[in-house]
Amino acid sequence: MVWIQRRKLLASCLCVMATVFLLVTLQVVVELGKFERKKFKDSHLQDERKKVEEEPKHLHPFPEKEALALGGKSKADVGAHPIMLWWSPLTGETGRLGQCGADTCFFTINRTFQHHPMTKAFLFYGTDFNIDSLPLPRKAHHSWALFHEESPKNNYKLFHKPVITLFNHTATFSRHSHLPLTTQYLEGVEVLKSLQYLVPLKSKNHLRKRLAPLVYIQSDCDPPSDRDRYVRELMIHIEVDSYGECLRNKDLPQQLKSPASMDADAFYKIIAQYKFILAFENAVCDDYITEKFWRPLKLGVVPVYYGSPSIADWLPTNRSAILISEFAHPKDLASFIRQLDYDDRLYEAYIEWKLRGEISNQRLLTALREREWGVQDINQDNYIDAFECMVCSKVWENVRLQEQGLPPKQWKADVTHLSCPEPALFAFSSPVPPALSGRSLREMWIPSFQQSKKEAQALRWLVDRNQNFSSQEFWALVFKA
Q1: Residues in domain Fucosyltransferase C-terminal (predicted)?
Q2: Structure-model confidence comparison of residues 451 and 35, the more confident one
């Protein structure tokens, strides 16, 4: 009997210990979850704040902008200058007095300045622009400024009239924006003319014994441009060496597999060995032109381009790239590539401009000469600095007008500042391999774009109401029957 009671007591103790253990474990899991969520959030914000430093260096490898020291100044002291509040924490700066020519503005990500009387402008980074938190109510003297150099797929609702016209000032990839960033991936004329990485045609012909005529390197698979579908069809008609995650049939050296290696010297030398590269953007928009186009031109490789319909306006010469829009079907493009591959005289016509160092496109030359920012140039502001100073200068212009008793100027973006057509899918007769069917993202982009129109309309209505709103209110409007 005593033995039985001892077993019951032991069992009870074990149950209590197990319960305590489970509770402690649960608490640990909860705390770890909080920690991980916080770490993820902090990491995300840090990544956004460090875009200038840590994204592939061709994007924005900029030196820190010179700033006036704040010292121990109070918020009231700071308020002696117009305040530019980064509502999206792109720069990560808690406070900086920035000099823009003769004008000085205070730049910060500190949202406690939202209702400060000297807060004149709210700066938004397009990818992070969302409905969860907006600086409402918006006062009459509050300008909204948009910085968005990235793909439309990052935030489709910005690309519709109801939303883009919310902004007073813009810096986008469109030539029509207030601060055009169309050439954001091109350092300058000299890198186009440079022969540093050029592999002689004789050597390329010899390398053709082990290399395909075309190379493709993409790891962002099935984007809105539907480029992988085109390349998959093209591969039926001509050999393509594909190194990225998308349609990969060849591997890069281990040390070059990181996206951060895309501007490594060793990576450049691999690409430079090819005659042609498939330079396909992830989205099709006028003036949306990335390093996919400029990199091969710098390396002496002929880009086979798909992306911006206005690309002809930015070619170094009329014959410096092959545009797939000029071919009815991938098999026609493949036939043309083979013709150039076999005929040195025809191929050289596409690199003659580089061999001679001659760029005939005056639009391109003018854009590079007149832009107010530089790429990898310590002697120039970067384009984030230029954007900040553009807004600062506009704010000061109105301050001076009001000091003279004159009405302020009104600036406003229009649809040309950020506009892309609805994504379109390629339709070829060749079936998609069974292993690839059902896993493609390609079908999601058109419905996503169509829904973004409803999101844009709902957002505009709510912002025009000029009151804070909840995400529930927003989505109720979006899906309203």
Answers
A1: 214-362
A2: 451
